[in-house]
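Internal tracking record. Fields below are filled automatically when a chain is submitted to the structure queue. Please do not edit lines marked as system-generated. If the sequence contains nonstandard residues, flag them in the REMARKS field before resubmitting.
Queue: standard
Priority: normal
Entity type: single polypeptide chain
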Amino acid sequence: MKDKISIVVGGSGQFGIYLSQLLLKKKYKVIITSRNIKLAKKKIPIKSKNLILKRINILNLEEIKKLILENKPNIIFYFASQSSPKLSFKNKKETYQSNYIGCQNFLKVIQKRKIDCKFINAASSEIYSETKKKIKLNSKKKPISPYGRAKLMSFEETKYYREKKNIKSYNAIIFNTESILRNREYLIPKICLAAINAYKFNTITAFGNLNVSREWNWCEEQVKYLLRFINKEPQDFILSNGKAYTAKQMIYYAFNYFNLDYKRFIKFRKSFLRKKDFKLKRSNYSFCLKRNNIRRQNKIYGKKIVYALIKYYLNETKN
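SYSTEM-GENERATED OUTPUT FOLLOWS
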């Protein structure tokens, strides 16, 4: 029986780590690539003889070719990216190269060398235009950030290679996703830490727009359903739970954990506002599930995400 081998490109982030853990349980040999192996080792809490870390430059076609030809993977996941819409206005070149050029390079090698594998691109809900309606696969695509534009380019490239070059490529359109591994500068971790600091030290924390509404997902659930989708025919699909909450609701949950009135500990700061941002973002997530005969049952969302993060952060400070 042929060995099951997967390559997770840019696998030191939350998606790469949880996905790798799940793949290892399914008896895959997992190769995580990173541009900085020393840093990746610090971030990846996995010990397994079937996990290998490899340094790779996603802009170098020869390095990519060598990686793929030597390992002959069944699946390649592309997660390498500068993933902050806010930072993408400052880091346009890195955002473009990591989200689009690297993805394109892998597709080129797969097609040219006739590699029989699945390729999964991590697309984003940021590829769509602002709308009050639920986002469908074919909703209008008009990104408002350099990050969204780069993601749209990689989405279209992945789709092109599937439809015109017969590559088994997928676009996973991922909505906001949280976990204990999420960078703490993002909104939900910041909210949870603000509540903890208010409880412990009476700290006041500044925020930007708290009226934004998002579907906040839990990463361990997201990777579980990601794998179920890629067991189906190559396609584009939405990866989200359909449960939207405003940032203000999430702040209420966080401060209520400590029986605190959040209004005493939160202030508005204009400089924290994004240049451009979506006020509301909801998905028509159920269409993709029904089309693939997949049922999704979410266990951690809304208040449960906030409580899970607060409990983790509190326990972390004890150790």
